[in-house]
């Protein structure tokens, strides 16, 4: 009996939140690599807010995931078989392998990982796209510098938790916005945020006015919606609002434009969007610096790992949008050991 | 009988559009200058979109105009009497003289005008705050450069008409958005815009998609609301959205956040607010360049002058918000000749 490859495919295009019935579990034989190809045994899959956009009818960066296609996902794994001169069996790799146990690849967009530097899961967290998004968004787009007040939304998530920690390392005063007392305590007690606002229990605008009476120089926003509006009303002059994501806006029927956007005019501020892969040339320098902070214990890469294999994917995605995760949400697919 | 000073004062704070009943006409003796002061005979008063903000309950830049106070306004006039060593009788000046026939001043914020360079009214138009707003917004904030596609909203207004013409002078392709066929013809036939979209008759987003299939590099926005949303959906990569004003947003009960703001992320674009007086140090260079273009006939400063004195102020303001003006709207207060 040949080994099997379990996969999660998109069965229907959701209109609001994705439901279990929007996904289908399929089984195929494990693929064999053709010439110039290799096959990866997937260990961990990244559960990303952007996934909601990838399955939306209107493409955002690129074409949407087709009905019947394997769900796209960033993942880490190990080369299982290879007909590719550049990738040897046993090497650890990151790539867009999708929500499946085995993926065939010609190496496009695949990077090799140094498993001795950090646990494999860190390459989906602080050393992966979330960490790189935090790094370039905060430092390049937001130009955060010592002494400034930085606010981060979805601060207990994969990107926000790293963005806030980098701000602290750089000497900024850091305020995190997150949902629930557990997350807020974690931000302050474990990650060194100066303070945290529980948006589920507190009036964000009022508390922010107390915590930052002189205004906010950098807002690293992963959420949009009412939280963006609240922070816009507390900008310092010349503030930088970094649009890293819009977690609250990915369900297309819940669009909320920031009605306080004219605060940009009053405070002479800017709101700027960015896309992490535009910085691909500079990933090595960023990973080196992030890995250094990890090693020194100044940066915590927290991953919340969901067990259960690809079958657990629909529930993991639901958890993400329900805001139930602490740190980067990851799905464990196969045990490589 | 001593000469009289007719004034328009704020009688009530409007909640939506300002009505005639929100204003009061008052009469006082013409003031006399104290030591270090002078009195200006006001010739022309600028009718500005920002006036709606100045009378709003929630201050924006500064405290709102108080109930019972003379309505604030930028104006040009001639020094009528003077006890100030720096301002001689007969000199032409610009300042925040308010909606009244005579204003006392200690010279704060007052600039002298060269009436030989251009008609006095041009100092409320292309050579005044509207022209300076267009100049710094387009060139400094928007960084418009030759070959780029520039879109201007409220393009037939005081600021927009100059912004579009400067973009043309700089070699950009210019698309104006205005209300009605007369304005649109004027933009293309008289001001040299490459094309114009009539937002009252046309679907802005659809037409913009046809006119600018490769996207918009600079959007100079005076309006906000649905027009901002429409243009956001046609940004080129790395576009600059310049928030010069939000004409549609000044009635506080009609707030509309740009629900397409996540396009900033997709296109790696920025949206930046600015305030013209921040550039005061550089006004002389800008006025010199604008005056040069005026003299060469490359820039048209069109002012629409409302007669009737201060009494006509409420109706002039209504015209502005109804979008009935072509070019900069100005109220003629006194004949200085």
TrEMBL record, chains A, B:
SUPFAM superfamilies: GroES-like (SSF50129), NAD(P)-binding Rossmann-fold domains (SSF51735). GO terms for molecular function: oxidoreductase activity, acting on the CH-CH group of donors, NAD or NADP as acceptor. Residues 16-331 form the Enoyl reductase (ER) domain. Keywords: Oxidoreductase. InterPro entries: ADH-like_C (IPR013149), ADH_N_2 (IPR041694), ER (IPR020843), GroES-like_sf (IPR011032), MDR_fam (IPR045010), NAD(P)-bd_dom_sf (IPR036291). It comes from the Bacteria. This is NADP-dependent oxidoreductase. It comes from Solirubrobacter ginsenosidimutans.
């Amino acid at each position: 009996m040949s080994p099997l490859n379990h996969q999660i495919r998109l069965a229907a295009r959701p209109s609001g939140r994705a439901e279990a019935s929007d996904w289908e579990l399929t089984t195929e034989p494990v693929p064999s690599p053709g010439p110039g190809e290799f096959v990866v045994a997937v260990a961990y899959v990244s559960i990303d807010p952007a996934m909601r956009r990838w399955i939306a009818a209107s493409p955002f960066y690129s074409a949407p995931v087709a009905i019947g296609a394997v769900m796209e996902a960033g993942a880490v794994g190990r080369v299982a078989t290879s007909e590719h001169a550049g990738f040897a069996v046993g090497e650890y790799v990151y790539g867009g392998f999708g929500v499946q146990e085995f993926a065939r690849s010609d190496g496009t967009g695949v990077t090799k990982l140094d498993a001795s530097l950090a646990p494999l899961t860190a390459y989906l967290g602080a050393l992966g796209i979330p960490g790189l998004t935090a790094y370039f968004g905060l430092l390049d787009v937001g130009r955060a510098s010592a002494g400034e007040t930085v606010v981060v939304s979805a601060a207990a998530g994969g990107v926000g938790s790293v963005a806030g920690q980098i701000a602290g390392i750089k000497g900024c005063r850091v305020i995190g916005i997150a949902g629930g007392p557990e997350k807020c305590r974690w931000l302050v007690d474990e990650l060194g945020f100066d303070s945290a606002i529980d948006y589920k229990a507190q009036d964000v605008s009022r508390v922010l006015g107390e915590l930052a009476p002189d205004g906010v120089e950098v807002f690293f926003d992963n959420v949009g919606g009412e939280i963006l509006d609240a922070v816009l009303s507390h900008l310092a002059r010349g503030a930088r609002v970094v649009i890293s994501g819009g977690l609250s806006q990915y369900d297309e029927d819940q669009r909320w434009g920031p009605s306080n956007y004219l605060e940009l005019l009053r405070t002479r501020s800017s709101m700027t969007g960015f896309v992490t892969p535009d910085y691909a040339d500079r990933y090595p320098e960023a990973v080196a610096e992030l890995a250094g902070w990890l090693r020194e214990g100044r940066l915590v890469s927290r991953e919340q790992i969901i067990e259960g294999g690809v079958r657990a994917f629909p529930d993991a995605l639901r958890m993400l949008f329900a805001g139930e995760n602490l740190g980067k949400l990851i799905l464990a697919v196969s045990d490589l050991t």
